[in-house]
Each structure stands twice: as C-alpha cells, then as structure tokens.
Amino acid sequence: MRSFITIILACVASTALQLSISRGNVTVPTFNINLDDSPLTRHTSAIRRYSTQLHSAYNQTMGDVNGTMKSVYKKIYETILRDKYPDFAAEIRGMSIVLNVTESDYFVYNFQYEINAMCTSIVARDNSSRIIIARNLDFTYTAAMRSLYAIFSYWKGGKELYRCGGQVGFVGLVTCMREGRYAVSMNLRRMGNMSDMLRNLREGRMLNAWMMQHIMETAEDYEAAKLAFRNAKTASGSYIIIAGMKKTEGIIMTRGRDGVEEFRELDDSYFWFRAQCNKDFSSEFTDYRTLRAHAGMHEIGKDQVTAGFIRARLLQKWPLYRTFTQNSDIGTVATVLMSPSQGTMDVTLAPEEAKWAYVSSSQS
Prior knowledge:
Blueprint: H1 2-15, E1 22-25, E2 30-34, H2 44-49, H3 51-62, H4 67-84, H5 86-99, H6 103-110, H7 113-116, E3 117-125, E4 131-139, H8 142-147, E5 149-156, E6 159-167, E7 175-178, E8 182-188, H9 194-202, H10 208-218, H11 222-231, E9 238-243, E10 250-256, E11 259-265, E12 273-276, H12 288-300, H13 307-315, E13 331-339, E14 344-349, E15 355-360
Parallel strand pairs: 1-15, 2-5
Antiparallel strand pairs: 3-4, 3-12, 4-13, 5-6, 6-7, 7-8, 8-9, 9-10, 10-11, 13-14, 14-15
Helix pairs in contact: 1-12, 4-5, 4-6, 5-6, 12-13
C-alpha cells in the first residue's frame, strides 16, 4: 500500500502546476480582547473600526441565504441556542448592536464558517524538531473575508491566554495558539445533509467555532486539548489539527457530531508530518489537494522542512492556493504558520492578484 501511495505522490509532484508569486507589505491589525470584560462589549472597538467592511460582507452574504433556511436558523437561535450559550449570544448581540442589524440575522451571518470554508492544514516536525502547523484558510466571499482578516490576542487576568487569526465580526475561532502550550487549526468536514445539522442544532449542540473558542479558554496543554476535542458534541463534523511541544505531539482528528471517529498522530520516524484538507482519510488519496500536500512535503523532506518552506513551496502554489475567479466560488484568504514552542504566529494575506503580502504577529 505504501509503495502504491508513493507512486501516486510522485506522479502528482511531477505534474503539479506552479504559480509564480511575489511578496509585498501589508498591515494586519491586532486587537486585544479582554475576556474579563463583558462579552457584550469586548469586541466593540474592532467592530467599529471595521463597520464599513462588515456591512459589505454582511449584505453580500445574507443576500445569498435562502429565505426559508434563514427563518429556520433564526428560530433555532432565538428558541434554543441563545439561552443555552449566553456568552456566545452576548458577543453576537453586542456586535449586532454596533452594526445596527438584528441579532438573530447576525447569528445567520456567523453561521457561514460551518458551511462555506475549505482549508488545508499540515502539522509537522521541522528540521529543529519543533512541532508546527501550516494552514490555508479558503473561503467563499473571498475578497470580503480578506478585508476583515485580523489577529486577536485574548487576555485574562492581565496575561495573554491565547492568540488567533480570523475575521473581525465572527464569533468563534478556527486558527489559534497558546504560546508554549499548543496550537490548533480547524478544517470543515462535510457529512450528512443540512437536515442532520438542523436536527443537531435543535438538540442544542454547539457550533464548531464556538467549541474551539471554549476549548482554547479552558484546555491548559496539548493533552487537555486532545481530550476536550475528542469528547465535544457539536452540530456538525470537523477536522482538528493540534501541535504541541514534544517531538511527537502532533495529531489530526476526524470529528463527527459525537466526538472523534479517527485520528492520526506523528511518530518518531515515518510519520513526521500529517496533512488534511476536507475529505476523510479513507478517501483523501482521491483528492488532488491532499495528494499535492503529501507529495510536496516529501519533496521538501524531513531534514530540510521549515514552516517557511511549507508556505513558499506548497501553500502559496496551486492547488493548495486557490485564486477566486468567475469559475470558482472560493479562494484563499490567508496562510497562517504557528509554532507554539517559539510563540510565533505568522500570517500571509492572499490578495486577489497573484501577489503575496506578508505580516508577522510573532511575539517571542
């Protein structure tokens, strides 16, 4: 089986299209979010600063939501989720007040990550034996999502608790790091159909992005995060990618609605990296993006690999880098590199042109 996979990887490596990309400069803002503040007001400064871009993204997104489904989502939020998750609901309410939109409508806008994101995440042991995560966030409404991208530093008790990359105006998290502890990225997993998700929402199950925010605030280390993600019950599935501090502390979890269904970890020898796009492991070698990720990592090699190499040689090239066009409704928003042992989170925004802009939020 391994030799068969090696042959496939070699074929993909030889035929992959290479996209030429240059770099520029851009400023990605960092917002300090104080978890000791009321959830109603803790995001106010970010929302006010980005109100124009948020109104544009909100109007574009909500204009595409089916009217019947919109009513269903709103009713579930108003009758179930708002009371069961008061802190998340307060964040949504606070943002909606600043933007002067209906709270339940703003929940529908926030629901988009559950259904409209496509990602690539790689966890690897670099050539200095540090565990890193390299990830692309691909999203519909690509230009709007790029314009809202920021870094959020979450504080509690006067100290930074964790750091995240994401869009201003979304409640919940998908790309985060606790310095000196662990880092996590989440990929969308499509499973079942919309009626299955609605049934789980009616049961009061948490959204994936809300689950991740809760775990980032409560799990102290890699093992605690693994356990929390393993047992959490959510409305839909996801892929969870975690990097820790020790040389084999790297894992990809395939999550269903009731917890982990399958997982793949790093080891001391052959499995020095793991890669995940948006298909299950049982079918991932029919997915051209996953094939390219595996081929590219073997091309780089475990003795040469760095986070920068993964970004430049894989995540900034087709097919892992996706350009939004009239023929594609999804494009790459940003690349994020995280090293919990170094305490670094580097963000690369991907503008619509074939040009890259690099910004580092490294704090070491």
